[in-house]
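Annotated sample (chain length 157).
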Amino acid sequence: MRLEPFRWWHIDEVMPTEADLFGPGKWSPAMFWNELANGHHYRVATDDDGTVLGYAGLAGAPPDEVWVQVIAVRRDVQRRGIGRVLLEDLLAEADRRGARRTLLEVAVDNVAAQRLYATYGFEPIGVRRGYYQATNTDALVMQRDAEPTGDGPHDHG
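Output written by the structure step:
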């Protein structure tokens, strides 16, 4: 498996996974086009043949926040560490950008994803009622704070 930039030609290939995992709340191709056009950090995980196994995206919220937009792995290849690798890539990008906070929303019934995020230091900070409108599912908002660098005026390293 390898990670590479998510490009426009991947959009058609990810749409079946998007529909399978997110159902009526799935993103449209235009939404992916918009994310890419705005220069957000998107990656695909591919197998040796270049087939997309999963994808993930991160968007900045200046001056010091980033939001995980999506992490998705095809059902037939889940539980192989692909989501973990994608998340680690997003967190490395957050560090490169100097983000103090990384946030995400996850369906309250997606316990497996919540456990993964918790292992990387994400903690629940709130609930958005009916956030996923197509299914009226609540979203758990989770946040991960960056490690202090020790070089800021308020850091006591």
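Annotation: Helices lie at 11-22, 29-37, 82-96, 111-119.
Annotation: The chain has one domain: 2-145.
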